[in-house]
Amino acid sequence: MFIDEVKVFARAGHGGKGCVAFHRETFVPKGGPSGGNGGRGGDVILQADHDLNNLIAQYYSPRLIAEKGEAGMGKGMDGHAGKDLLVRVPCGTLIWKLESKLAPAELPAASVSPSESAQTLRLSTGERPMFRRAGAARALEIDLSKDTPEETTGGIQGAELIADLTEHGQQFVLCKGGRGGLGNRNFATARRQTPRFAQPGEPGEEGEFRLELRLIAEVGLVGYPNAGKSTLLSAISHARPKIAPYPFTTLHPQIGIVEYSDYHRLTVCDVPGLIQGAHQNVGLGHAFLRHIERCKILVLLIDMAGVDGRAPWEDYKQVLSELELYDPALLEKPRLVAANKMDEPVAETNLKTFKRKIPKTPVLPLAAAFDEGIKKFKNVIREAVETANAKS
SS3 of 379, please? Predict the structure, then answer.
């Protein structure tokens, strides 16, 4: 299964609460405060890994929850920090933060008294620490400026791109863990020598995100269904995509590695066939087109035999139109035109007509099913990629 888009919920670990304790030992019946601090909550970290090629792991585990920090203890012992959650994703993953907004009228009525809410606002600004008693802490931890989890489960208004992981080992902190609360030993003063309160830990960051994979390849194969893209990919690389004599045999992008005698390598992406209206997501066009946005060059593969009853020159114009309507920047990429299925008798006649109707457009003839023109094709795409790299 190939998964290139998934929605996840991530939550960093909450900070551990501070401890209220006092030093007690033989002959020291009334020692000073000795409550330890709570540990920091773990972060949720995404890391790009070139050994992965899709988001199937996040598809089956969409909840990314980091470890909480340990609470502080007596005798001045601080709690352990929560363990960070490291999530590996393939190179080329974009992270979108999904926003959730509510109208002011939808906010719930507070279930605390005015005096308690005022105390909450004072304590949230850091003017005074939270009380340790369980009942008071639950009341005082209510923040009237935030929505409750039940209200943030729906109403997604949009998304914001927050990261793009393209290089192996690149990391991004998706959610940062909360700080641990201070123990009562931090609040001892000359006038308040036995503080009986401590801070609770800060909550970790959380939110809903959409992970979107855009494959990183140097060459992108684009064309109509049944043009022979999968056959060409299998001819120039060791990739073995499914090949059959009917459209939409390929349902998700395929990556192949082209190897040369001098140990040089190129990555080639076979995008499923495009149809008219792909820029409007007809035939899942958006799911396919986004995978060629990172390619250095594009290869427009044309069925020069017209086995599906279409004119090759019309296919060429339609593919260019779909690319331009989806993203005009795609037409600025270097592109090659490859005429496939030249083993068919009508292909030579169609090629002459193609050159007459589409002048000043070099065409590379080949027959991928019989390995004709494959060697020249490999050399041409290598030169094109090297030229594109030199210009960038």
Answer: helix
